[in-house]
């Protein structure tokens, strides 16, 4: 699949460590504007490490990361959010003691345009009507699916150009996974670029155009999701299809 | 001594004393609990921040007295003294965070604790050198007059401390609940990494937390100075541990808990004096600490704290 859109995120030969573990061993990856790119891999392959390195929570020891043409790998996490990269972290990490509205306000922390923030909160409730019903509730009392919706809505409150999603399907019932993925598609259609990390490759490939397979800290494969779905190794390891 | 209990005048007097001391404990306890809530460390130099605040107020008032302007504008002078005290303590708290704690943020938990104790000893000695280890007498600006209401008499100063501490605590509560920075403080306390992902400058929020806690301790320091008239470089030690006890009583990390813990401790001390000699005041406080640590280590409101995602 050819892409005329310019590159939004370029990760070049990133090395990162978790303590003594060499978690990323020279990972390179690109996300073009308006794309949904899937990053699949098993537990501990380095998916979350990569997202956290992009977000500036972890520092890379080597390599570089460019966003909208400028280098960001030495910037602090809050500057990176300010530039337009938001993350929906693994395990949602909502603020359980804050109300739903307060969680959304935290998502918009870097913004100064209060009027627009109010509009975006309205839009978030539009996207997730369940959250509107529970807006005054303490977020810890929400169900797992509602918490995932809140985590996504919260990240959108920063008006990101690039949304990093870390395993949005984790721990959710299949019906809810469908809903969440439909929402992700909708967010994409409204113009937000998405890098989607998933173990659920089947779902991820349905909405993504391109994909990367990460294995023990290195990119093993990179292709369109159509081709990846045909790949024997991908079928065997990530799609659960037995190959003769 | 039991007969004291039956004497309503003494009883009411002690309740007023309890509210006065309790408010002061609560103000100091908030500093411990705010910092613990975010960094999970006990800032054992907090008592010294309180002490420096008291001296900040002392220097300001002494300056005003020497200039002879306290007679005409006593209230203004006191207000400025509080302000100076808060600035002194805030700057000190911020420096402490930057120099003694921030470099150790990823170190094992024992390291910042040792650093805190070191800072505490250092600050005590700095003040000892400044005042040449002599007791300093707080200027008397507000005359010690009593408001008589039937059998009850309450000094204007007690009214001032009781209402002032309540006002500061209400202010703090509203700040934490309603403002963007206050909400960010709660967010950072709950999940620092998630807060980073929201674009919250966590370092800044931690610094602000130290500044707020220090300013509250400074207010308590001026109150103590005006109430007890004498201050020295060791004055932070006992109130520091007592306020720490209050914070633990209420459930360390819990803001409302620290307020309640402060009043609870103040009341326990004031009413305890009705049963036993006044020298046993400290025994009451620390027995309470031991009992709470044995039977309810999470404190009175501890459950709220333990509810971490």
Write the layout of secondary structure elements.
The complex is a heterodimer of chains A (about 240) and B (about 300).
Chain A: E1 7-18, E2 21-32, E3 36-40, H1 47-55, E4 60-67, E5 70-71, H2 77-83, E6 85-88, H3 100-107, H4 114-127, H5 129-133, H6 144-156, E7 162-166, H7 174-189, E8 193-198, H8 201-207, E9 210-215, E10 218-224, H9 225-230, H10 232-237
Parallel strand pairs in A: 3-8, 3-9, 6-7, 7-8
Antiparallel strand pairs in A: 1-2, 1-4, 4-5, 9-10
Chain B: H1 2-6, H2 8-39, H3 46-67, H4 74-101, H5 110-131, E1 136-137, E2 146-149, E3 152-155, H6 156-178, H7 180-190, H8 192-197, H9 202-228, E4 230-231, H10 237-250, H11 255-272, H12 281-295, H13 302-306
Antiparallel strand pairs in B: 1-4, 2-3
Helix pairs in contact in B: 2-6, 2-9, 2-10, 2-11, 3-4, 3-5, 3-9, 3-10, 4-9, 6-7, 6-9, 7-9, 10-11, 10-12, 11-12
Number of E-type strands of chain A = 10
Q: What is the CATH architecture descriptor of the largest domain in chain A? A: 3-Layer(aba) Sandwich
**Largest beta-sheet characterization of chain A:** 6 strands, mixed
The total count of helices of chain B amounts to 13
Range of strand content of chain A = 25-35%
Word description of this protein:
The complex is a heterodimer of chains A (244) and B (309). Chain A is an alpha/beta fold and 244 residues long. Chain A folds into 2 domains: 1-84 and 162-244, 3-Layer(aba) Sandwich (Rossmann fold), CATH 3.40.50.300; 95-159, no CATH class. Helix content of chain A is 37%, strand content 27%. Chain A contains 10 helices and 10 strands. In chain A, the strands form 2 sheets. Chain A has a 6-stranded mixed beta sheet with strand order 6-7-8-3-9-10, with helices on both faces. The longest helix of chain A is centred in the last third of the chain and has 16 residues, at 174-189. Chain B has 309 residues and is mainly alpha-helical. Chain B has a single domain (2-135, 154-295), classed as ABC transporter involved in vitamin B12 uptake, BtuC, CATH 1.10.3470. Chain B contains 13 helices and 4 strands. In chain B, the strands form 2 sheets. A two-stranded antiparallel ribbon of chain B has the order 1-4. A two-stranded antiparallel ribbon of chain B has the order 2-3. Chain B is globular. Residues 303-309 of chain B have low confidence and may be disordered. Chain A binds chain B through residues 55-57, 76-78, 80-82, 86-87, 89, 93-98, 102, 105-107, 109-110, 140, 154-155, 158, and chain B through 180, 183-184, 186-187, 190-191, 193-202, 304, 307-309.
